[in-house]
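Entry 14. Structure prediction run on the chain below.
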Amino acid sequence: MATCWSVYHQDSATGYTFHRLNEKFDEGNMLIKGQVPVKADSSVSDLEHAKAVQAAKDIPCLLKIIMKREPGQVQAGSGNYFLKKDSKKITIIDNPSKYSHAELINRLRAFGVLLMNIKGVWYDVTKLKKVPAPQNNSKTIYFQTSDGMIMCPSRFWFLPFFMYRIFKKTGWSMPSGTESSGAQ
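Output returned:
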C-alpha cells in the first residue's frame, strides 16, 4: 500500500526498510533502507517488483548485520501511515465531476481501481479515456471533469463494459470484494 501512496503523492522515490522489531509499530532501529525511483510511466506493480528485487539483494548484508548484533540507526522524524479508510477516501468517488481529469488519472494510476458513482450507478473503474464529446449512445457512460474534459470509463474491473455488466447481472462478486464496498 505504501507504494500506491508514493505514486499518488508523485514522490520521486518509493522505498523499503528492514528494521528491528520493538514494542511499538514500525519504530524499531533501521538496519537497511533502500529505495527505487518513481518515474512518470512506472506502474505500482513495476515499483513493487523493483523494490522486492532490490530488497532481496540486501538480504546477505541484512543477515551479516543481524549476526553481528548491530543495533541499527534510530529512525528520525515521524513516519507516514495510511490506513484502509485513507485509501477509501481516495478511491471511492461519489461525484467524479468534482475532480480534474489529471487527479482522476493519478488516483487510478496509484490505486488501480476507483469505485465511481456515474449518473447514480456505482462502477469499479480501472481505465478512463478522454473523448472529444458526449456520445449520443445510451450504452456509453461518460462524465465531465471539473476542468471540462469528457471522460469515458473503458474498463470495469479490468473488463470491457459488456463483460462487467454480465458479472453484475449474474450476481458474481468482483475480485477482491470491492464491488460497491463503502459506497452505500
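The radius of gyration is 21 Å.
Filed with the rest of this week's runs.
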